[in-house]
Amino acid sequence: MSIDQSAGFDLVSESALDSDALDLLFREGRTANTFTDEPVSEDTARAIYELAKMGPTMMNIQPLRVTWVRSDEARERLVSHMAEGNAAKTKAAPLVAVLSFDTEWPEHFGTVFPIAPERAAMFTGDDNAPVRAAVGSNNAWLQAGYFILAVRAMGLHAGPMGGFDAAGIDADLHAGLGRQTFMVVNIGKPGPDAWFPRLPRLDAEVATTTL
Fold this sequence. Notes:
This protein has 9 helices and 4 strands, in the order αααβααβααβαβα. The protein is an alpha+beta fold.
């Protein structure tokens, strides 16, 4: 029985999106492990970011930074920092995005939160370094979810990965930028044998509580 019809529940009738859109973004969206060689254009990459940036973050801080890896030289440098199981697919993907967060994100507070720019003081200075790092990291991870959905909205598939030397990537690709890498995402059209078997999802009765 499909997930949206279990126990008599009709997900599509509850949604503002049609069934095809729900499939594209959620139900048929998968983590791709192989890709075709069809390129991902600069305009498509820009569209991915333009969608992803619209998702909400705490006080609109938007700490996510995206490094698009296109050139052969940059790709080789990135691959040298990937774990063995991730290196080959990262080398072969049409486009790779390195997701990081800006460790000095409060510098942009006046731009992103002009209604109360003075609140940047809550996160600046050495005393506030731990909360600045935690808030930046947490909200960048939130934005990464939007990023993956934006990739799917472009009709592409994402292969988000851990399994890399984050410090090595930052020293190599982000030197002097104050960025901390937390995810690498391969992007493109899925190739042969792109999918592992879909793993089970928890039922609502297990994962949700109504008070």
